[in-house]
Amino acid sequence: MRNDTALITEQVLIAPDIMRMELETEIAADTSCGQFIQILVPGYFLRRPISVSQVRDNCHLSLIYRVVGDGTRVLSQLKAGEKLDIFGPLGHGFPVIDEDVVLIGGGVGIPPLIETAKRHISSGHHVTAVLGFASESQIFAKEELESLNAEVIIATLDGSCGAKGTVIDAVHAHDIAKETTVMACGPLGMLKAVSAYFEHGYISLEERMACGIGACMGCVVKTPEGDTMRVCKDGPVFEIGKVVL
Ligand SMILES: Cc1cc2nc3c(=O)[nH]c(=O)nc-3n(C[C@H](O)[C@H](O)[C@H](O)COP(=O)(O)OP(=O)(O)OC[C@H]3O[C@@H](n4cnc5c(N)ncnc54)[C@H](O)[C@@H]3O)c2cc1C
Ligand code: FES
């Protein structure tokens, strides 16, 4: 992990309140799927953690983030050509395994699954991506995943596109076997439902964080045995069943 002054090469709105930012940075060379970077937003002391959505050519990182508060609002106003202080890559990401996988993402849990899909597809495996949104107008990342040759299944809570209901409703509607290895990222309720249905796999926890490097204990979760794990350093990706949700 290291600090870098990244160059913003593109920043676009891809859905309501959802931005995609492209960065040119040497950090890309060491970054794997499911890892994140800490961004120093101009004017703020605490860095904001954002997952890496794609790594390109070993020198570009793609981020997808939702504008939810002051930090991400300031971030969304930066333009191509401006510089950004970033730190990373951080955490343990998703493993790349020698199997077909099902990826399940809800809202801004979807970004880290894109690079995860790319790495499994490029090693010859079939990837099914089940993406959950509130409604059709909120959908993003579908074309990006399809262009990588992932099979994309959409669930919307209001039924305006794809299966009506949650990602788990879509999993049932498409008869996805519980024996398939799953990799998931999204809201806690979704991760609980995924962990209850699938027999094995991995989940990424996007807890609130401070230091991001394992020093402050601001992001701890417990194992079933009662031991403490830091989401930023031991995770954010954990094997299903290894942490209490
Ligand atoms: C490892 C990791 C990876 C992440 N990856 C992404 C990503 O790829 N895309 C993305 O959009 N977001 C991601 N997040 C969440 C992102 O870090 C926060 O949304 C961001 O820091 C909010 O900053 P802010 O200053 O705009 O909001 P704040 O003013 O700090 O908060 C605004 C609102 O957002 C809520 N919030 C803040 N942080 C989080 C969080 N971590 N989880 C849930 N709610 C939060 C607050 O409770 C509050 O309601 C990730 C978080 C972690 C820990
Ligand atoms: S954020 Fe400091 S230990 Fe995880």
Describe this structure in words.
- The structure is a single chain.
- The chain folds into three domains: 2-90, Beta Barrel (Elongation Factor Tu (Ef-tu), domain 3), CATH 2.40.30; 101-203, Rossmann fold (3-Layer(aba) Sandwich), CATH 3.40.50; 207-245, Dihydroorotate dehydrogenase, electron transfer subunit (Dihydroorotate dehydrogenase B (pyrk subunit), domain 3), CATH 2.10.240.10.
- It is 17% helix and 36% strand.
- The chain is built from five helices and 16 strands.
- It has a seven-stranded antiparallel beta sheet. The chain has a seven-stranded mixed beta sheet with strand order 11-10-9-8-12-13-16, sandwiched between helices.
- It binds flavin-adenine dinucleotide and FE2/S2 (inorganic) cluster.
- FE2/S2 (inorganic) cluster binds next to loops.
- Flavin-adenine dinucleotide is lined by residues 36, 48-51, 64-66, 68-72, 108, 111, 206-209, 236.
Summarize the SSE layout with pairings:
Elements: E1 2-15, E2 18-24, E3 36-40, E4 48-51, E5 54-56, E6 60-66, H1 70-76, E7 83-90, E8 101-106, H2 111-122, E9 127-133, H3 142-147, E10 151-156, E11 163-164, H4 167-173, E12 181-185, H5 188-197, E13 201-204, E14 220-222, E15 228-230, E16 237-239
Parallel strand pairs: 8-9, 8-12, 9-10, 10-11, 12-13
Antiparallel strand pairs: 1-2, 1-7, 2-6, 3-4, 3-7, 5-6, 13-16, 14-15
